Description:
This is SP-RING-type domain-containing protein. The protein is an alpha+beta fold. Mean pLDDT is about 80; it is low at about 225-235 and about 235-240. The protein contains four helices and ten strands. The relative contact order is 0.17. It has helices at about 60-70, 75-90, 135-140, 185-195, and strands spanning about 5-10, 15, 70, 100-105, 120, 130, 180-185, 205-210, 215, 245.
Amino acid sequence: MSTGIRRKAHYSKDLPIDASMMLHPGVNQITVATPSGNPIPQNRYPAIAVELVEILSHSAVVRMVKEKGTLSPDHTREIIKKRLAVASGDDDDDDLAMVNSDLSINLADPFTSSIFTIPVRGKDCTHLECFDLETWLNTRLGKKSVCICSNKGDCQRCKEPSFVDKWRCPLCDGDARPYSLCIDGFLAEVREMLQKGNKLRTKSILVSADGSWRPKEQAADDDSDGGSDDDNDGSAPVASTRSSTRPAQPPREVIELD
């Protein structure tokens, strides 16, 4: 079977060829032919690259992350303990030393502005904030494609996966592809406890070095939803796209010297 190079309308840009329908089990051979009127210049060597794209169903990704990508609660507690120890510092000047006893962690999913159901983040993310797994997958829309099967309606066979850039962490722009996602067991426990206490509207928590935590008090007008149902482009709200994990600052005392 043969196929020609696709070109993007108005820009004459070469597009990749989808050879999926031409492959068969076993060894496949690809032959590239160029027009005879366009000889290849000397010292120029043409190259061809074959990219394998793995397509997983929504349920398969959720199952994979749950089975292979869960961080233990103690793992997160150890990170919190170390960060609070660093934040307290070892300054020799006792008059200037400020001890941070709590770490603030935002619980709001950047897409829905409400608490996550399954808290995930990229394995290389340095922040502790998470986003919801189901929401993340549902907002990774595939590329627009033209059906070549002549099937009427929604053709599942000719659907294309989403762009790689769509899988960047909404909090830090890091790698958040399915194989890089991990569930935070500590924050999953936090959600479970908040659900039992009927406190799922909690936006953030304060965590101590020993792993204990408490809901962070918030202003009365913070309960209003910051998201919009009209935003369907898969992008997180601007105000919620960056991590806010930080040690909670204690109130400062003002001493007046006569």
